[in-house]
Design a protein that fits this description.
CATH topology: Rossmann fold
Number of strands: 5
CATH architecture: 3-Layer(aba) Sandwich
Mean pLDDT: 81
Distance between the termini: 27 Å
Largest sheet: 5 strands, mixed
Low-confidence stretches: 6-11
Number of helices: 5
Structural class: alpha/beta
Number of domains: 1
Order of helices and strands: EEHEHHEHEH
Helix content: 25-40%
CATH class: Alpha Beta
Radius of gyration: 15 Å
Length: about 160
């Protein structure tokens, strides 16, 4: 399991808190807007659920610029995806849904473009106390996971 200490965030571009595996169906992606206790609660709650992985990205804008720089140099349809973003996302199959949990999830949309994973959004609720926001986030992840699994079963994934 990766580190969730807030002082680590500036030195780590991609932190797999719950590593992806061949069983992963839902990858929760959080950024710096999610308080460390919220990310810790997610990690604790889903640590024994192999269908869920958790990726923390402390500086998504910087990483987006870096990924865009790598991507613009690849003009052919057979070009390989390179850069830290691609290397970090490589463990996820294209069928894995990305659940972007942030106060501004639209700023993480580009992650779905790396390998073509479907993107889902949930907004971190800053209008409630932290405990309620964490509870809401965990409930939302469970609801999304249920739907993802039902959809995958129905389609034979």
């Amino acid at each position: 399991m990766g580190s969730l200490n807030s002082h680590d965030m500036s030195s780590v571009n991609w932190d797999w808190i719950l590593r992806a595996s061949e069983f992963t169906q839902l990858c929760i992606v959080v950024d710096q807007s999610i308080p460390t206790p919220a990310a810790q609660a997610l990690a604790k709650r889903f640590s024994a659920v192999p269908q869920v992985s958790l990726l923390r990205i402390p500086e998504p804008a910087h990483l987006h610029r870096e990924w865009s720089k790598y991507s613009e140099h690849q003009t052919s349809a057979v070009a390989t995806v390179t850069g830290d973003a691609a290397k970090s996302m490589r463990p996820l199959s294209r069928a894995v849904k990305l659940l972007l949990w942030s106060s501004a999830p639209e700023e993480l949309d580009w992650l779905g473009g790396i390998y073509g994973q479907p993107v889902l959004h949930t907004r971190y609720r800053i209008d409630t106390d932290e405990a309620s926001a964490i509870r809401f986030g965990i409930e939302r992840v469970f609801a999304v996971l249920r739907e993802v699994v039902k959809c995958n079963v129905a389609t034979g994934y």
